[in-house]
Amino acid sequence: MEEEQKQIKINLDPILYALSNVNIRFTEEVFDFLMVSGNQARQFCASPKHAKRIHLLLGKCLDEYEKKFGPLETQLPEKKETASEEKIGFKK
Question: Which pTM does this prediction carry?
Answer without folding.
Answer: 0.53
